[in-house]
Amino acid sequence: MADAPTGVSRALREAPPDRVVEAADRAIRSVLGASGTVVFVADYRISGLWPVLDSRQPGAGDQALAHRCFSSQQPVRESDEDGRCRLFLPVSVWGERLGVLMVELPEAPGDEMVRRATDIAGEVALALRAADRETDRYRRARRRERLSMAAELQWELLPGRSVSHGAFHLAGQLEPAYTVGGDHFDWSLDDNRLTVTVLNGDGVGLAAALLTAVAVNAMRNARRSGGSLVEQAELASDTVYYQHRGHRHVATVLLELDCDTGRVRAVDAGSPHVMRVRGGTVSRVELEQQLPLGMFAETRYDLQEFDLDPGDRLFVVSDGVWGADPTGRESYGERAMARSMRATRLQPPTEAVGTVMRELQAFHADVDLRDEAVVVCLDWRGPAGWADQ
């Protein structure tokens, strides 16, 4: 048993990328004495969990337990009258929730068995994350309908859907997931600095997605070359301008969090809105709004700064969230959005983004969104280790 994670790791490394799930099943049966396994992956809306192997269709009870595990990110176990046990484990890596691993055991496991099985689920998460670059199998399992060409491009651009660090927890969501066009988010953690961007590409469909892709990659190019936040905005603006001569633009907000201090640097280049939840109060972070990227040649941007206190939560939302007014009433951002954000205070960011999106859908009376929507949620815990001091 002591070599259980090592044995599974070796099996996963040696498996072809499109056979990671089968390799995991064989290895887990061998090292844990399991009678079977099921790997569930979350769909693009994070509204369901689906088995990678179509032949292993679990019942409604197993689905409910898998969802409980996915939401809580804690092991969940249930035994039947014969003593057999189903153990559900989060398949997550670096804070990104990929799915759930169900392990069927002949008897209820002890705490040590659960700990080792949890480690194995983490190994499966790493393998799936790596294999996803080499095969379409897991992407097919995640999608419940065909993506538009624009959405295909946008999902390929994403860095992930959540990430954790000792100082912060971050998550984002795009809607409508299967047809999103120009709205997008990006992030990167480097040298204890977290860079987050939220973009509102001009137009609709594939043209908007292509415009956003140019802006995202221009900002990445500057960032990966050591450029500051201002340099990232200016390179992206010039790149978009010289492609479209001012006829197309990308509204963007760029944030850089110093994970040692909680100091945030910002460039506000358009419409995405930054909201801070402190205690029970939701307030807008007032930033000087500058020109969207690409409107004019050689546009220059100014840096602004603000501080976060440990326990603060930031939401960054696109105009499709803030300005939604499906029935001619006041916009969603006037009051309803703040209520939905306050309702998330006991939820982690991975759940909070879904809550705000569901409330937005309810605001639309459950009809399709008229505009695309991005919600990004950042929890600032304080410098790494602050909570333990």
Question: Brief description of this entry?
Answer:
GO terms for molecular function: phosphatase activity. This is Phosphatase. The chain is of the alpha+beta class and 389 residues long.
Would you mind describing this structure in some detail?
One of its GO terms (molecular function) is phosphatase activity. Pfam families: SpoIIE. This is Phosphatase. Residues 163-380 form the PPM-type phosphatase domain. This protein has 389 residues and is α+β, with helices and mostly antiparallel strands. Helices cover 35% and strands 27% of the residues. It folds into two domains: 4-140, Beta-Lactamase, CATH 3.30.450.40; 147-388, Phosphatase 2c, domain 1. It contains eleven helices and 16 strands. It has a six-stranded antiparallel β-sheet with strand order 6-7-16-15-12-13. Strands 2-1-5-4-3 form a five-stranded antiparallel β-sheet, with helices on both faces. The chain has a five-stranded antiparallel β-sheet with strand order 8-9-10-11-14.
- Helices, by number, come to 11
Kindly report the CATH topology of the largest domain: Phosphatase 2c, domain 1
Per DSSP, what share of the residues sits in E-state strands of 2 or more residues? 25-35%
Instruction: Name the strands of the widest sheet in spatial order.
Output: 6-7-16-15-12-13
Radius of gyration over C-alpha positions, nearest whole angstrom: 22 Å
pLDDT averaged residue by residue:
91
Full CATH superfamily name of the largest domain: PPM-type phosphatase domain
Q: What's the total number of strands?
A: 16
- Please give the CATH architecture of the largest domain: 4-Layer Sandwich
Please bin the fraction of helical residues. 25-40%
- What is the CATH top level name of the largest domain? Alpha Beta
- End-to-end separation: 35 Å
The helix-and-strand class reads alpha+beta
**Overall body shape:** globular
Low-pLDDT segments: 385-389
Tell me the number of structural domains. 2
**Helix and strand run:** HHEEHEEEHHHEEEEHHEEEEEEHHHE
Please give the largest β-sheet.
6 strands, antiparallel
Protein name: Phosphatase
Pfam families: SpoIIE
Keywords: Hydrolase
InterPro entries: Bact_Sigma-Reg, GAF-like_dom_sf, PPM-type-like_dom_sf, PPM-type_phosphatase-like_dom
